[in-house]
Amino acid sequence: MSQTDYRVVTKTVPTFYFVGVTTRQSSIMKVFPRWMEAIGRPEIVIEGIDHPIHDNPEAYRQTVTQIKYDPLSLGALVTTHKIDLLEAARDMFDELHSSALLTGEISSISKRDGKLWGHAKDPLTAGLSLDAITGEGYFGRTGGHVLCFGAGGSGKAIALHLITKQNRADRPERFIVTNRSADRLYKMQAMVESLDTDIEFVYVQTADPQRNSELMESLPDGSIVINATGMGKDTPGSPITDEALFPRNGIAWEINYRGDLDFWHQAMAQKESRNLTVEDGWLYFLHGWTQVIAEVLHIEMDEATFQRLAEIAAELRPPLVYKPRGK
Ligand SMILES: NC(=O)c1ccc[n+]([C@@H]2O[C@H](COP(=O)([O-])OP(=O)(O)OC[C@H]3O[C@@H](n4cnc5c(N)ncnc54)[C@H](OP(=O)(O)O)[C@@H]3O)[C@@H](O)[C@H]2O)c1
């Protein structure tokens, strides 16, 4: 297909795209219109573009063509296809932010001064979420390490966020990451080694719940365990066994907010006995969306605006209820 073969639909209303897999099921479809009213831009509509996982490169180029050449197509938030879309359509972007160049993916497509921009917002948005969970100086205070299951987009973003922390007390001494395929671990290692860091990174290729659990049980008290595999939402199960013990006084962070969330339930079961702080991915969802909206609509996402939008979204949030196993 040549460039001229791609279709461009001339939109009659300003349109913000959500590029994903099952976009209709996301909370954003209900939240977005309320947010646009709140920021005084009720004319902007959201439209989902669903691609199957690892879609044909031409399909990604069609999506980027629509945004690039239709004046009322304002931009997009990209999920799941962050790496594939950039690889398929890199030459169509006029500018790529350094975050996109470093991580090799984009979650935000926007237009500025006639140029098409790609940004990787996850290092910022995963970072904002993690900072809100830990508070300042967490690692200096606790001596905890980080164990992250999954070396995909989010795992890499969390690593990058911690590497760039200025204060020693905000950086863990050790960051262990496990992943099913070796390829993602190599890519993460290449990113880490291109940067200057005193964090010791340990890469473990496994998807074995027993092995993941052993790694978790070897952590010092106060450590942070993150489920960035998509298990419990995109695929069934959890990266750890039901019997595995979480670190005492530690943090368990399930980065999704919907689905069966097995890992979150496993952590909730030990909340009291291990004095565990248990978090889900709702805040990450909010930061992810508000930062891309700010980029696409050229608005400032200050604290007051973020809080206002967070309150609106909370009214529409699907309930998350802890159910002990077997009940
Ligand atoms: N709350 C939010 O707003 C928010 C924001 C971002 C992401 N998320 C969610 O977070 C999840 C991860 O996102 P992502 O963008 O990082 O996805 P991703 O790039 O697909 O990464 C997931 C990684 O986990 C690995 N994996 C799968 N099962 C594993 C296991 N049992 N043990 C170890 N590694 C395993 C995969 O390995 P392979 O290399 O073998 O495939 C893959 O590299 C998704 O469900 C996404 O929807 C939520």
Sequence of secondary-structure elements? EHEHEHEHEEHHEHEHEHEEHEHH
Give the percentage of residues in beta strands: 15-25%
Question: What would CATH call the class of the largest domain?
Answer: Alpha Beta
Main beta sheet: 6 strands, mixed
Could you list the spans in which at least 5 consecutive residues all have pLDDT below 50?
A: none
How would the global form be characterised? Answer: globular
Which secondary-structure class do the elements indicate?
alpha/beta
Mean pLDDT across every amino acid position: 95
- Proportion in helices: 25-40%
Number of domains: 2
Bound molecules: NADP nicotinamide-adenine-dinucleotide phosphate
Supply the CATH architecture of the largest domain.
Answer: 3-Layer(aba) Sandwich
CATH fold type of the largest domain: Rossmann fold
Plain-language structure description:
By secondary structure, the protein is an alpha/beta fold. It has two domains: 3-120 and 289-316, Rossmann fold (3-Layer(aba) Sandwich), CATH 3.40.50; 124-280, NAD(P)-binding Rossmann-like Domain (Rossmann fold), CATH 3.40.50. The chain contains twelve helices and twelve strands. The strands form two sheets. A six-stranded mixed beta sheet has the order 2-1-3-5-6-4, sandwiched between helices. The chain is globular and about 55 Å long. NADP nicotinamide-adenine-dinucleotide phosphate is lined by residues 149-155, 178-181, 184, 207, 228-231, 233-234, 239, 255-257, 281, 284-285, 288. NADP nicotinamide-adenine-dinucleotide phosphate binds at residues 149-155, 178-181, 184, 207, 228-231, 233-234, 239, 255-257, 281, 284-285, 288.
